[in-house]
C-alpha cells in the first residue's frame, strides 16, 4: 500500500522566497520515491514580487497540492503576521485533522509560528509520524528582534508551551551546530535532533560575466562592491551596519542592498539622511536574476542581530560560497556562519561589540584575497550541493523509517 506524506508550508511554488523554494525542492525530491504519495498543504498566497510569473501546473504534476486559506494580512506588520498565522494555522489544522491518517508522515516547517503548537496538539490524539524542519525558533527569535522580554512572565509561559510543542516531533532538522545546541536545550535531548544544512541553488551560474555598471546603474569601476541580498527584517540589523559603514573612509568600497522587509523604510531613511553616496538600495530583484546580482558583487554581507545564536542560518550563505564570494559576517560568536568562516577561511567574522575593528578592516580593504574565493567554491561543492543536502533529508524520511514502515508500526 502506498504511504502518504504531507508537506506543510505556508509558502510554496510559485513563490520564490527562500522557504518556498526550499520546501518546493524537498517536495519534488521526496516525490521521486514511488513508495509514497506526496501531498503539499500550503497557503493560497503570492508573498511578494519574487514569484514565478510563468508558473505551470505541469512543473509539479507529481504533487497533490492542497491550497488552504488565502492570506490578506500585511506580511511586514506585526498585526498582519499574527492575523495570517492564525488564519493559516486554523486552515492547516482542519486539513490535517481531516486528511492525515495515523500511518502517514507529516513533514512541516516552522512557519508560520503557530503551526508547531497546532501540530503538537493534534498529535496528542493522532499519532502520525512527524518531522519538523526548524527554520525559525519561536519565541526565542522575538528577543533579538526587540519584540519581547525573556524576563516577562508571559514570555516564560509561551516558551514553556513551545518547548513542549517542539518536543512532540519525532525528528527535528536544524540548520547548524548553534541551532542544534539551542534545540537540544529546548527539548532536553539531542537524540532526535539532526543537522542538515541548506544548499546552494543548482541553477546558479558560477563566473557569469555581467556588466555591473549597467545592472546597478552606477559607475563601479575599480570599486570593491559589498552586497547584501535578502530579507531586510528586524533581526538582520542592517541599519546598525549602515551606521557603522558611514564611518568608513575607504573610497574603493561601495555597498549595494537588494531586498525588502519590515525595516526597508528605516534603511532607506539612514541612507537618505546621511547622504551615503556609496550606498545604493535597489529594491527587490527576482530570484532568477540572483546569478547576475550576486556575481556583480565582490563580497557578500550577512548580518544577524546580537542574540541570534542558534536562531537561524541565512540560506544565502551557501549561494555566496558557490559563487566564490567571500563573506563578511557580523553576528554572534560561535554561530554556524562564524564557525564556517573560522574553519575554512572563507571570509571575515565580527561581532557587534567590535565596531572599531569593523571600521579598521573596511578602511584597509583594498584588494580581494583570491584564495578565499577558490576555497568558498570548493567547500560549497563538497558539502552544500543540492543533491548532497536533499539526499540527507530523503534518507532521514525513508531509510531511517524503513524498518518501522515494513512492520506497519507508527507513533
- Assign the CATH class of the largest domain: Alpha Beta
Strand order of the largest sheet: 3-2-1-4-5-6-7
Q: How many β strands by DSSP?
A: 13
Q: Please count the helical segments.
A: 15
Give the domain tally. 2
Biggest sheet character = 7 strands, parallel
Distance separating the two termini? 18 Å
N-to-C order of helices and strands: EHEEHEHEHEHEHEHEHEHEHEHEHHHH
Indicate the topology.
Elements: E1 3-8, H1 18-30, E2 36-44, E3 64-70, H2 78-99, E4 105-109, H3 115-122, E5 129-133, H4 153-166, E6 171-174, H5 177-187, E7 193-195, H6 212-216, E8 224-231, H7 238-245, E9 253-260, H8 264-273, E10 279-281, H9 290-295, E11 299-303, H10 316-322, E12 327-330, H11 336-344, E13 347-350, H12 355-363, H13 370-383, H14 386-397, H15 402-407
Parallel strand pairs: 1-2, 1-4, 2-3, 4-5, 5-6, 6-7, 8-9, 8-11, 9-10, 11-12, 12-13
What does this structure look like?
The protein has helices at 18-30, 78-99, 115-122, 153-166, 177-187, 212-216, 238-245, 264-273, 290-295, 316-322, 336-344, 355-363, 370-383, 386-397, 402-407, and strands at 3-8, 36-44, 64-70, 105-109, 129-133, 171-174, 193-195, 224-231, 253-260, 279-281, 299-303, 327-330, 347-350. By secondary structure, it is of the alpha/beta class. The protein folds into two domains: 3-199 and 385-407, Rossmann fold (3-Layer(aba) Sandwich), CATH 3.40.50.2000; 212-383, Glycogen Phosphorylase B (Rossmann fold, 3-Layer(aba) Sandwich). It has a seven-stranded parallel β-sheet, sandwiched between helices. Strands 10-9-8-11-12-13 form a six-stranded parallel β-sheet, sandwiched between helices. Helix 3 (115-122) links the parallel strand 4 and strand 5 (129-133). Helix 1 packs across helix 14 (386-397), helix 2 (78-99) runs parallel beside helix 3 and helix 7 (238-245) packs parallel to helix 8 (264-273). The chain is globular and about 65 Å long. Residues 402-411 have low confidence and may be disordered.
